[in-house]
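Write out this protein's structure.
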Amino acid sequence: MPHNSPTTTQGQFTVWAIARAAIAKLDGHWNAEPGPWWVSSDVTDTEGHSFTVGVEDGGLLYVCPEGYAFDKNTAFMYHLTKDNGLDAAAEAVADAIRRLLPLV
């Protein structure tokens, strides 16, 4: 796996960049790995918790526990744009993981 996402311009960023920024906001030891084409990312901790961060067809950013079928009942979804910025997206992902963690 590559260790850097593709070059971005004008404040654009990848889902992997969001996931990497989110793990910096979480307690514990977390890791983020990019999915294909950087449109999703797997976020895991050392205790075996795993989440998928991605963007669904309608453009919503989502966080879903690994092993669950993605749908509106199993995922947190956010209507964020790149204008909201990387920090806002990362905080939304970190918040979703904090909320989902006791359930997995």
